[in-house]
Design goal:
- This protein has five helices and 14 strands.
- The longest helix is centred in the middle third of the chain and has 34 residues, at 107-140.
- It has helices at residues 3-31, 78-103, 107-140, 145-174, 178-203; strands spanning 34-41, 44-48, 53-58, 65-66, 71-75, 206-208, 213-218, 225-226, 231-237, 241-248, 260-265, 271-285, 299-307, 319-324.
- The strands form three sheets. Strands 1-10-13-12-11-14 form a six-stranded antiparallel β-barrel.
- It folds into three domains: 32-42 and 240-324, Beta Barrel (Elongation Factor Tu (Ef-tu), domain 3); 45-77 and 204-237, RNA polymerase II/Efflux pump adaptor protein, barrel-sandwich hybrid domain (OB fold (Dihydrolipoamide Acetyltransferase, E2P), Beta Barrel), CATH 2.40.50.100; 83-200, Helix Hairpins.
- With 329 residues, it is an alpha+beta fold.
- It is rod-shaped and about 160 Å long.
Protein backbone atom coordinates (compact mmCIF):
# COMPACT_ATOMS: atom_id res chain seq x y z
CA UNK A 1 0.00 0.00 0.00
CA UNK A 2 1.41 3.31 -1.04
CA UNK A 3 1.62 6.39 1.14
CA UNK A 4 -1.39 8.13 -0.43
CA UNK A 5 -3.64 5.13 0.17
CA UNK A 6 -2.52 4.91 3.78
CA UNK A 7 -3.45 8.60 4.31
CA UNK A 8 -6.89 8.11 2.78
CA UNK A 9 -7.52 5.04 4.92
CA UNK A 10 -6.49 6.94 8.06
CA UNK A 11 -8.90 9.79 7.29
CA UNK A 12 -11.76 7.34 6.71
CA UNK A 13 -11.07 5.54 9.97
CA UNK A 14 -10.91 8.85 11.86
CA UNK A 15 -14.24 9.97 10.44
CA UNK A 16 -15.82 6.64 11.28
CA UNK A 17 -14.49 6.85 14.85
CA UNK A 18 -15.80 10.41 15.24
CA UNK A 19 -19.23 9.43 13.92
CA UNK A 20 -19.38 6.43 16.22
CA UNK A 21 -18.42 8.54 19.20
CA UNK A 22 -21.02 11.15 18.34
CA UNK A 23 -23.71 8.50 17.95
CA UNK A 24 -22.70 6.88 21.23
CA UNK A 25 -22.73 10.23 23.00
CA UNK A 26 -26.15 11.19 21.58
CA UNK A 27 -27.63 7.84 22.61
CA UNK A 28 -26.12 8.21 26.05
CA UNK A 29 -27.62 11.64 26.43
CA UNK A 30 -31.04 10.47 25.29
CA UNK A 31 -31.07 7.63 27.81
CA UNK A 32 -29.20 9.29 30.68
CA UNK A 33 -30.48 11.96 33.06
CA UNK A 34 -31.43 15.24 31.43
CA UNK A 35 -29.46 18.07 33.06
CA UNK A 36 -30.12 21.67 32.09
CA UNK A 37 -28.62 24.99 33.13
CA UNK A 38 -30.36 28.26 33.77
CA UNK A 39 -30.86 31.21 36.07
CA UNK A 40 -33.28 32.21 38.80
CA UNK A 41 -35.91 34.63 37.49
CA UNK A 42 -37.76 36.47 40.28
CA UNK A 43 -40.45 38.92 39.19
CA UNK A 44 -40.23 42.50 40.43
CA UNK A 45 -42.96 45.08 40.98
CA UNK A 46 -42.62 48.86 41.12
CA UNK A 47 -45.21 50.37 43.47
CA UNK A 48 -46.51 53.90 42.89
CA UNK A 49 -49.49 55.96 44.00
CA UNK A 50 -52.32 56.53 41.53
CA UNK A 51 -52.80 60.04 42.96
CA UNK A 52 -50.29 62.88 43.36
CA UNK A 53 -49.50 64.31 46.76
CA UNK A 54 -47.09 64.58 49.67
CA UNK A 55 -45.90 61.38 51.35
CA UNK A 56 -46.83 61.42 55.03
CA UNK A 57 -45.65 57.93 56.06
CA UNK A 58 -43.47 55.05 54.86
CA UNK A 59 -43.83 51.83 56.84
CA UNK A 60 -41.08 49.63 55.33
CA UNK A 61 -37.43 49.83 54.38
CA UNK A 62 -35.11 47.93 52.06
CA UNK A 63 -34.78 44.26 52.98
CA UNK A 64 -38.10 44.11 54.86
CA UNK A 65 -40.57 41.34 54.10
CA UNK A 66 -44.14 42.36 53.37
CA UNK A 67 -47.34 40.34 53.27
CA UNK A 68 -50.27 40.81 50.86
CA UNK A 69 -52.33 43.83 51.87
CA UNK A 70 -49.72 45.41 54.17
CA UNK A 71 -49.98 49.21 54.31
CA UNK A 72 -46.64 50.35 52.91
CA UNK A 73 -47.06 54.12 52.52
CA UNK A 74 -49.59 56.93 52.83
CA UNK A 75 -50.11 60.34 51.26
CA UNK A 76 -51.40 63.40 53.10
CA UNK A 77 -55.11 62.62 52.67
CA UNK A 78 -56.65 65.90 53.85
CA UNK A 79 -57.11 67.38 50.33
CA UNK A 80 -58.83 64.18 49.25
CA UNK A 81 -61.07 64.12 52.33
CA UNK A 82 -62.12 67.69 51.56
CA UNK A 83 -62.86 66.78 47.95
CA UNK A 84 -64.95 63.82 49.09
CA UNK A 85 -66.93 66.01 51.50
CA UNK A 86 -67.70 68.45 48.68
CA UNK A 87 -68.77 65.61 46.36
CA UNK A 88 -71.05 64.15 49.04
CA UNK A 89 -72.69 67.57 49.52
CA UNK A 90 -73.37 67.74 45.77
CA UNK A 91 -75.02 64.32 45.95
CA UNK A 92 -77.28 65.44 48.79
CA UNK A 93 -78.26 68.56 46.85
CA UNK A 94 -79.08 66.56 43.71
CA UNK A 95 -80.99 63.96 45.74
CA UNK A 96 -83.11 66.66 47.34
CA UNK A 97 -84.01 68.03 43.91
CA UNK A 98 -85.03 64.57 42.69
CA UNK A 99 -87.12 63.95 45.81
CA UNK A 100 -88.87 67.29 45.36
CA UNK A 101 -89.76 66.51 41.76
CA UNK A 102 -91.03 63.03 42.60
CA UNK A 103 -93.22 64.31 45.42
CA UNK A 104 -94.75 66.97 43.18
CA UNK A 105 -96.24 70.22 44.49
CA UNK A 106 -97.25 70.67 48.08
CA UNK A 107 -100.97 70.52 48.98
CA UNK A 108 -100.80 74.15 50.04
CA UNK A 109 -99.60 75.16 46.55
CA UNK A 110 -102.40 73.19 44.90
CA UNK A 111 -104.97 74.76 47.26
CA UNK A 112 -103.58 78.21 46.47
CA UNK A 113 -103.92 77.55 42.74
CA UNK A 114 -107.51 76.32 43.23
CA UNK A 115 -108.36 79.49 45.16
CA UNK A 116 -106.91 81.59 42.31
CA UNK A 117 -109.27 79.74 39.94
CA UNK A 118 -112.26 80.51 42.12
CA UNK A 119 -111.31 84.18 42.26
CA UNK A 120 -110.85 84.29 38.49
CA UNK A 121 -114.26 82.65 38.03
CA UNK A 122 -115.86 85.28 40.25
CA UNK A 123 -114.19 88.11 38.35
CA UNK A 124 -115.26 86.57 35.04
CA UNK A 125 -118.88 86.13 36.17
CA UNK A 126 -119.00 89.73 37.36
CA UNK A 127 -117.49 91.02 34.09
CA UNK A 128 -119.86 88.86 32.02
CA UNK A 129 -122.88 90.12 33.98
CA UNK A 130 -121.76 93.72 33.55
CA UNK A 131 -121.35 93.16 29.79
CA UNK A 132 -124.90 91.79 29.51
CA UNK A 133 -126.26 94.76 31.44
CA UNK A 134 -124.40 97.26 29.28
CA UNK A 135 -125.60 95.50 26.17
CA UNK A 136 -129.23 95.90 27.30
CA UNK A 137 -128.71 99.55 28.07
CA UNK A 138 -127.02 100.13 24.72
CA UNK A 139 -130.07 98.72 22.92
CA UNK A 140 -132.30 101.35 24.59
CA UNK A 141 -129.74 104.10 24.10
CA UNK A 142 -129.08 104.48 27.84
CA UNK A 143 -125.40 103.42 27.47
CA UNK A 144 -122.85 104.63 25.00
CA UNK A 145 -120.97 102.41 22.60
CA UNK A 146 -117.75 103.30 24.39
CA UNK A 147 -119.02 101.98 27.72
CA UNK A 148 -120.20 98.81 26.00
CA UNK A 149 -116.79 98.16 24.46
CA UNK A 150 -115.09 98.73 27.81
CA UNK A 151 -117.38 96.14 29.43
CA UNK A 152 -116.67 93.65 26.62
CA UNK A 153 -112.91 94.17 27.02
CA UNK A 154 -113.12 93.62 30.78
CA UNK A 155 -115.10 90.41 30.20
CA UNK A 156 -112.48 89.10 27.71
CA UNK A 157 -109.63 89.87 30.09
CA UNK A 158 -111.43 88.10 32.92
CA UNK A 159 -112.00 85.07 30.65
CA UNK A 160 -108.27 84.92 29.75
CA UNK A 161 -107.29 85.24 33.41
CA UNK A 162 -109.67 82.38 34.30
CA UNK A 163 -108.17 80.14 31.60
CA UNK A 164 -104.66 80.88 32.84
CA UNK A 165 -105.63 80.10 36.45
CA UNK A 166 -107.20 76.79 35.43
CA UNK A 167 -104.06 75.74 33.46
CA UNK A 168 -101.88 76.65 36.42
CA UNK A 169 -104.06 74.47 38.66
CA UNK A 170 -103.77 71.58 36.20
CA UNK A 171 -99.95 71.89 36.24
CA UNK A 172 -99.88 71.98 40.02
CA UNK A 173 -102.03 68.85 40.22
CA UNK A 174 -100.10 66.99 37.51
CA UNK A 175 -96.69 67.74 38.99
CA UNK A 176 -93.36 68.25 37.21
CA UNK A 177 -92.71 67.29 33.60
CA UNK A 178 -91.07 63.94 32.90
CA UNK A 179 -88.21 65.76 31.19
CA UNK A 180 -87.52 67.77 34.35
CA UNK A 181 -87.55 64.60 36.46
CA UNK A 182 -85.18 62.85 34.01
CA UNK A 183 -82.83 65.85 34.02
CA UNK A 184 -82.72 65.89 37.81
CA UNK A 185 -82.04 62.15 37.84
CA UNK A 186 -79.13 62.61 35.43
CA UNK A 187 -77.66 65.34 37.63
CA UNK A 188 -77.94 63.01 40.63
CA UNK A 189 -76.15 60.20 38.74
CA UNK A 190 -73.34 62.58 37.74
CA UNK A 191 -72.97 63.77 41.33
CA UNK A 192 -72.82 60.18 42.57
CA UNK A 193 -70.14 59.35 39.99
CA UNK A 194 -68.08 62.34 41.16
CA UNK A 195 -68.49 61.18 44.75
CA UNK A 196 -67.35 57.66 43.87
CA UNK A 197 -64.29 59.07 42.09
CA UNK A 198 -63.45 61.19 45.12
CA UNK A 199 -63.85 58.15 47.38
CA UNK A 200 -61.54 56.09 45.15
CA UNK A 201 -58.98 58.91 45.11
CA UNK A 202 -59.03 58.97 48.92
CA UNK A 203 -58.50 55.20 49.05
CA UNK A 204 -55.59 55.58 46.62
CA UNK A 205 -53.70 57.65 49.20
CA UNK A 206 -52.88 54.29 50.84
CA UNK A 207 -50.27 52.13 49.09
CA UNK A 208 -50.79 48.41 49.78
CA UNK A 209 -48.52 45.44 49.10
CA UNK A 210 -49.97 43.39 46.21
CA UNK A 211 -48.33 40.13 47.29
CA UNK A 212 -45.78 38.61 49.61
CA UNK A 213 -42.41 40.11 48.70
CA UNK A 214 -39.10 41.56 49.82
CA UNK A 215 -38.46 45.30 49.53
CA UNK A 216 -35.59 45.77 47.08
CA UNK A 217 -35.50 49.56 47.08
CA UNK A 218 -37.19 52.55 48.70
CA UNK A 219 -36.88 55.56 46.45
CA UNK A 220 -38.82 58.23 48.40
CA UNK A 221 -38.90 59.59 51.95
CA UNK A 222 -41.71 61.18 54.04
CA UNK A 223 -42.37 64.73 52.93
CA UNK A 224 -41.50 64.04 49.29
CA UNK A 225 -43.93 65.21 46.63
CA UNK A 226 -44.79 62.47 44.17
CA UNK A 227 -46.82 62.36 40.99
CA UNK A 228 -48.80 59.52 39.58
CA UNK A 229 -46.61 56.55 38.55
CA UNK A 230 -43.55 57.83 40.47
CA UNK A 231 -42.05 54.63 41.99
CA UNK A 232 -41.92 54.57 45.79
CA UNK A 233 -40.93 50.93 46.38
CA UNK A 234 -39.54 48.11 44.26
CA UNK A 235 -40.58 44.65 45.45
CA UNK A 236 -39.11 41.24 44.69
CA UNK A 237 -41.99 38.76 44.64
CA UNK A 238 -41.41 35.58 46.61
CA UNK A 239 -44.20 33.48 45.15
CA UNK A 240 -43.93 32.21 42.55
CA UNK A 241 -40.20 31.99 41.88
CA UNK A 242 -39.19 30.94 38.38
CA UNK A 243 -36.12 29.40 36.79
CA UNK A 244 -35.33 30.21 33.17
CA UNK A 245 -33.57 27.26 31.51
CA UNK A 246 -32.92 26.09 27.95
CA UNK A 247 -33.15 22.71 26.23
CA UNK A 248 -31.94 21.52 22.84
CA UNK A 249 -34.33 20.25 20.19
CA UNK A 250 -33.21 16.57 20.47
CA UNK A 251 -34.29 16.53 24.15
CA UNK A 252 -37.72 18.17 23.72
CA UNK A 253 -39.45 14.81 23.48
CA UNK A 254 -38.00 13.51 26.75
CA UNK A 255 -40.35 15.53 28.96
CA UNK A 256 -43.52 17.58 28.76
CA UNK A 257 -45.19 20.53 30.40
CA UNK A 258 -45.88 19.60 34.01
CA UNK A 259 -42.79 17.38 34.37
CA UNK A 260 -41.11 17.46 37.78
CA UNK A 261 -37.62 18.90 38.14
CA UNK A 262 -34.98 19.29 40.82
CA UNK A 263 -33.15 22.60 41.09
CA UNK A 264 -29.75 22.99 42.75
CA UNK A 265 -27.44 25.94 43.29
CA UNK A 266 -23.71 26.18 43.87
CA UNK A 267 -24.18 28.09 47.13
CA UNK A 268 -25.99 25.40 49.12
CA UNK A 269 -26.68 21.68 49.15
CA UNK A 270 -30.43 22.08 49.19
CA UNK A 271 -32.48 20.64 46.35
CA UNK A 272 -35.58 22.60 45.35
CA UNK A 273 -38.58 20.97 43.74
CA UNK A 274 -40.20 22.51 40.66
CA UNK A 275 -42.43 21.92 37.68
CA UNK A 276 -42.00 22.71 34.00
CA UNK A 277 -44.65 25.36 33.48
CA UNK A 278 -43.93 26.59 29.96
CA UNK A 279 -41.97 25.46 26.92
CA UNK A 280 -41.38 28.17 24.31
CA UNK A 281 -42.52 27.23 20.81
CA UNK A 282 -39.80 29.42 19.30
CA UNK A 283 -36.16 28.42 18.98
CA UNK A 284 -33.38 30.85 19.92
CA UNK A 285 -29.63 30.84 20.37
CA UNK A 286 -28.29 29.86 23.77
CA UNK A 287 -27.79 32.98 25.92
CA UNK A 288 -24.19 33.73 26.88
CA UNK A 289 -25.08 33.55 30.57
CA UNK A 290 -26.01 29.87 30.35
CA UNK A 291 -23.10 27.49 30.92
CA UNK A 292 -23.53 24.27 28.92
CA UNK A 293 -21.21 21.61 27.69
CA UNK A 294 -22.54 22.01 24.12
CA UNK A 295 -21.80 24.66 21.57
CA UNK A 296 -23.23 28.08 22.45
CA UNK A 297 -24.47 28.52 18.91
CA UNK A 298 -26.89 25.58 19.21
CA UNK A 299 -30.54 26.45 18.85
CA UNK A 300 -32.44 25.84 22.07
CA UNK A 301 -35.95 26.30 23.50
CA UNK A 302 -36.65 28.32 26.61
CA UNK A 303 -38.28 26.70 29.64
CA UNK A 304 -40.01 28.40 32.52
CA UNK A 305 -39.81 26.29 35.65
CA UNK A 306 -41.99 27.09 38.67
CA UNK A 307 -40.22 26.44 41.98
CA UNK A 308 -42.74 25.39 44.62
CA UNK A 309 -40.60 25.55 47.78
CA UNK A 310 -38.41 28.58 47.11
CA UNK A 311 -36.70 30.49 49.91
CA UNK A 312 -34.13 33.27 50.13
CA UNK A 313 -31.49 30.83 48.99
CA UNK A 314 -32.68 31.51 45.44
CA UNK A 315 -31.61 35.01 44.48
CA UNK A 316 -32.31 36.95 41.31
CA UNK A 317 -30.08 35.86 38.42
CA UNK A 318 -28.39 33.04 40.38
CA UNK A 319 -27.12 30.23 38.10
CA UNK A 320 -28.74 26.86 38.80
CA UNK A 321 -28.57 23.28 37.62
CA UNK A 322 -31.86 21.61 36.71
CA UNK A 323 -32.39 17.86 36.58
CA UNK A 324 -35.57 16.92 34.69
CA UNK A 325 -37.61 13.79 35.35
CA UNK A 326 -37.77 12.42 31.77
CA UNK A 327 -40.12 9.87 30.23
CA UNK A 328 -37.30 7.33 29.91
CA UNK A 329 -36.36 7.38 33.58
Amino acid sequence: MNKKARIILGVVLALAAASGYGLWRARGRRHGPLVLYGNVDIREVELAFRQPGRISRLAFDEGDTVRPGDLMAELDAQPYRDALAGAEAEVRLAQAEVDKLHRGNRPQEIAQAAEAVRQAEAVFENADSDLRRQSSLAETGAASQRVLEAARSARDQARAALASARKNLDLKQEGWRREDVAEAGARLAAAQAQRDQARTALEDTRLLAPAGAVVLSRTREPGSMVGTRDPVFTLSLRDPVYVRAYVGEPDLGRFSQGSKVTVRTDSSGRAYQGTVGFVSPRAEFTPKSVETTDLRTDLVYRLRIVVADADRGLAQGMPVTVQVATHDQ
